Amino acid sequence: MRWRDVKQKKIDPKSPDDPKELRDYATLYERFKAFMTDSFLLAMPIFYGVIYLVFDGLKGSGGVESHRLEAWAIILIPLGALVVWFLSQKGQTPGMKAYEIRAIENQSDEKPSVASAFLRYFFFNIAFFSVILLLVPLFRKDRRGVQDLFSGTSIIKA
């Protein structure tokens, strides 16, 4: 912003220079609602299939209880493939679409690339299982989480 333009009232001195500051970021509540919707629409069918079709129920020698690590791997890999596909192709998961929010890359304001979507999913899982990293958006003005920071994405209102 040039001082002369401000003095001649061509531009507002309080307007941000960076158009990224004009973004309408999604609230944590909207993001949580979208996450819960995705949990039921995408994750629950995969959980059901893994528990009852791949393993022999929850308990017993052939059940998920005795094969937890394998069960989580079998659940998280197809779930990740779905989430990465939705984000890279459409910029929204079904939950994000329901609550009118979408993911964008910070540099281009376009839908995330496959690599960005994968990094976002990977770091979200790390944050989710370490719990303390889920608190990062509470201390940031733009409400971006660890997964957003490392993948170079943002969640904005569509």
Key attributes of the depicted protein:
two-stranded antiparallel ribbon; mainly alpha; 158 residues; 6% strand; 2 strands
Description of the molecule:
This protein has helices spanning 3-7, 28-54, 68-90, 94-98, 114-130, 146-151; strands at residues 101-105, 153-157. It is mainly alpha-helical and 158 residues long. It has 6 helices and 2 strands. The chain has a two-stranded antiparallel ribbon with strand order 1-2. Helix 2 packs across helix 3 (68-90). The protein has one domain.
Question: What secondary-structure arrangement, pairings included, does this model have?
Answer:
Blueprint: H1 3-7, H2 28-54, H3 68-90, H4 94-98, E1 101-105, H5 114-130, H6 146-151, E2 153-157
Antiparallel strand pairs: 1-2
Helix pairs in contact: 2-3, 3-5
What order do the strands of the largest sheet run in, or round the barrel if closed? 1-2
Poorly predicted regions are none
What coarse outline follows from CA principal-axis ratios? elongated
User: CA-to-CA gap between the ends?
Assistant: 28 Å
Average pLDDT, all residues: 88
Oligomer: single chain
Strand content: 5-15%
| Number of structural domains | 1
Structural class: mainly alpha
Largest sheet: 2 strands, antiparallel
Helix content: 40-55%
Overall strand count: 2
The number of helical elements comes to 6
How do the SSEs run, as a string of H and E?
HHHHEHHE
Task: Supply Rg.
Answer: 20 Å
